[in-house]
Amino acid sequence: MTNVASADPYANPYSADADRGELWEILIARDSDAFAASDWSVCDGDFAHDRFEGITANGSFNPIDWALRYPTVESYRDDWLQMAERYLQVPLAATPHRELLYRMQSFAKVEIADDRAIVWKQFWADEPLADGERYQLSAQSVYRLHQVDGRWKIVGFVGYLPMESRGA
Asked: What is the CATH number of domain 18-162?
C-alpha cells in the first residue's frame, strides 16, 4: 500500500482507515514533528518500552550484517536526538526541515493481522542545499507494532536498510 501524493504534505493519506491512519500519525506525523523540534517527548508515548528493540541493517540487505543497536527505547532515543540535531544543521536551500521530513517519507506497505502490524516505511530525498550541493537520502525501515491498551505501539524495527534508487 503506497501513499497517494497530496498537495498538503501534512495531510494523513489514511484518514479513512482508523488503523493505517493511526500508524501514519505515529510513524510519520509525530516522528517528523518531534524530529524537526528535536523533542523526544512528542513521540516517547508511541513506544512499548517493555518490549522494544531496534536493529540496524548497517546499510546492507544481508541480515548477517545487521546488529542489535538499540536494546532499549532509551538507547534509541539518545541516537535519535543526535540524528535530529545533525539534520537540523543541514542548510536546506528552499524547503523547511519539517516539510522535507513529511515529503521524504511514505509507507510502501502495511500489513495488519489482529493486534499486530508491520509497516514498510521508505525515505527518499534529493533537495538543494544553500551551498549548491544536494541533500540526498534513500533508505527504508521495517517497523513492528502491537496494539497495547487499544493503541498502536512501536515494539521494534529494522532500520537503515538500503533502498534501490528511483532513477533520474
From this structure: 3.10.450.50
